[in-house]
Write a structure and sequence with these properties.
With 155 residues, this protein is mainly beta. The chain has no helices and 13 strands. A four-stranded antiparallel β-sheet has the order 3-4-5-6, with no helix packed on it. Strands 7-8-9-10 form a four-stranded antiparallel β-sheet, with no helix packed on it. The radius of gyration is 16 Å and the shape is globular.
Length: 155
């Protein structure tokens, strides 16, 4: 969101480290009230001028002109956020229950769950999303206990 800032997710919340070019004031364009929301951070992802943080069972968005806001279209997720990826306005959110794709342009939310068979469970029934990677052409790779799964969304 600001080229001299580094955001770090911890079990106690987000920490912003300001770069060498920054001073004691908030960076230009970022409101003083841009305090990070509290809670355990499961994942971070950036897309353009937006930073996404999976905190507990919510996703928060930091935009240069607005500070932190909760991603209301998602509601409260069924489990803690474990992985995030974002590309071209689509945010992929991984939890122990599955995967959610949030198209931020249209506020469309598409779930992919273990229970519905969208994602494979491990040999002993383990569930969870450990990582997400989005290819430039849009294919999504999801790390699960059963191995890597490729999704080809048709939007």
């Amino acid at each position: 969101v600001h080229e001299t800032d580094l955001w770090i997710g911890t079990d106690a919340g987000l920490v912003r480290l300001r770069g060498a070019a920054a001073d004691d004031e908030a960076p230009a364009g970022l409101p003083e009230s841009a305090e990070a929301p509290p809670g355990r951070v499961g994942a971070l992802a950036a897309d353009g001028d937006h930073l996404y943080a999976g905190i507990e069972r919510d996703v928060w968005v930091l935009a240069t002109d607005a500070g932190w806001t909760r991603a209301a279209p998602l509601g409260v997720l069924p489990a803690r956020v474990s992985a995030l990826a974002a590309r071209d306005g689509v945010v992929w959110i991984g939890t122990d229950e599955g995967l959610v794709a949030w198209d931020t342009h249209d506020d469309l939310v598409t779930p992919f769950t273990f229970a519905a068979g969208d994602l494979p469970v491990g040999l002993r029934g383990e569930r969870g999303v450990d990582g997400i990677a989005v290819e430039p052409e849009g294919a999504v790779w999801v790390a699960t206990p059963a191995g890597a799964v490729r999704l080809d969304p048709d939007w």
